[in-house]
Every structure is written in structure tokens, then in C-alpha cells.
Amino acid sequence: MNSDDLAVFAHVAKTGSISRTAMELGANQSTVSRRIAVLEAELGVRLFRRSGRGVGLTERGEQLLGYAQTLERTLEEARGAMRNGAESGPAQLAIAAQPTIARIMFGELGQRLRARYPNTRVRFVEGLASQILGRLNDGEIDLAIMYVPEHRGATQFDPLLAEDLCLVTPADFAMPDGPVEVRTLGELPLILPSTHHGLRVLAESLAARHGFTLQIALECDGSISLTKRLVMAQCGCTLLPAASVIEEVASGRLRCMPLANAAVVRDVAIAWPLNRVMPEGVWRVAQMIRELAADLVEAGEWPGATLPASQD
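RESULT FIELD:
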């Protein structure tokens, strides 16, 4: 006996006719009759009395109908709870991002989440890649928005956009405006992360591809904010996406110049652990993040960023 059998039984009890039940359910009359017969055989009781006018419930049939109706209500309540749960969003949600991404996205994302899921308790977390990945894999964070690292480990990344890297210099650095020839980077004192970081790997790959050696003035494994402060303090230049220095360039504290004839990009993606199935509510939030990223790029609010081909 299963819920489908009970549903057919309840439908026959309601209509008082096997033929009418078959017509309303879009089934063969013989199929409905057979399912009722199998149900009676399994339970060892007669559920219906047959007559020329149709079928009527026996005493045992009346008893079973109560159970069938209770099960139908329970299933409908379960369907409603699942639908309402999807609409109301997860009870709580933790989203992490690296500083530049957090600065660009978290304000608008917070507004959209409050409008769509007012009952969801949202927690935003800002951190470095290593911190975020650790907390993500520990289950402390539901989703992360971050630059795809060189070594992905046990994390899945779903691309959102790509950012071009630019040369960032002190405001009074003696250099002409305009795109910078890539080989020029070999003549500049650079502030970059140590060798196991993705940005350093990109820079080293660029140097190898164009036949020059990087001149490392300082290694900085701290935040982008710290790197920018070191550049403003005349300790050297660096490579960063344009979006990370919008405010400093606007206020005249830094300069930002694109690289000529060089596709040097960092991919920004939604991240979650490979060994964890993304719940429906979190999946819906991931789609909201994707929509927000596309809106920001198309509105010109994420300088130097482009969407994947499938989103253009």
C-alpha cells in the first residue's frame, strides 16, 4: 500500500464510480479496478460494495478513508511547507567575500536579500581567500564570492565575471598616462603577494610569457587595503583590478593604468564545497548574486569587469 493507491481509493470513494474515477484520472477502468482489488487483497478486507448504481464503502472502507484523507492533508501540508520555504528563503545565511568584492557587492546584495527574504537572518563576512575557504569547508559559511585561487582544493567555483588587472602606482609616480607596455613591468619596483598566491602566480606567468623578470620591492600577504597603503607610501607599485582602487584614484591618491596588449585577468566566482549539496534556498540566493553581478557590470559599476560569454 502506498500514497498513490490510497489516492485512487479515496477518489473512487468520492465519485462512487470506478468508471468515472478512471475518466477523471485519465486511466483505464481496468487499471483502477485492478488497483482496488490489489489493495483489498493486501489488506484482507472488502473496501467497496458493488451495485448496479456504482460502488459504496464498507465499514472497513469508511475506516480506511479516514486514514487516506489524513494522509492527503499531510502530503498537501508538506507540499505547501516546501513551497513556502522556498519563497521565504533560508532561516539564516552566511555569505563571505574578499574585501574588494565585498565593497562592491554587499550593499546592494543586502538590500535585495532584505526585500526578497525579509525573515532570513543574513550574516556578511569579509576575509582573505585562505580564511574564507577554511570557513566555507567547515560549514560556517554557506556561500562565498571570491577570486578563483590557483589551487581549488575541495571547492567548487561557478564563474561570475572576469576582471582585468591594471598597474597601480603612487599618484606622483613618473610615468606617462595611457596603457602600459607589459615589458615595462620588469623595470618597476612591485609590491605583490608571496609566490603561493594567485595574483603572484598571474604576474610571474605574465613575466615568463613576455620574457622579463619581476622586480619585487616588497612581498605583502595582507589585505588589498594594506597593499594600497604601501603603494601610497611610495614603497612600490602593484597589480590590482581597477575596481579595487576606485576611491583612491578618484581622490588623487593613486594612479591606475591598463596593461597594453595583455589579457591578464582574475576570475570572480561563487564558491561552495564540492562535497556539499547546495540547498534550494541557498541556490536561489546564488542566482540573485549572479543577477547582481551582471547588473553591476552592465551599469558600469564594476570597472574593468566582463561577464562570461553565456551571460552577454
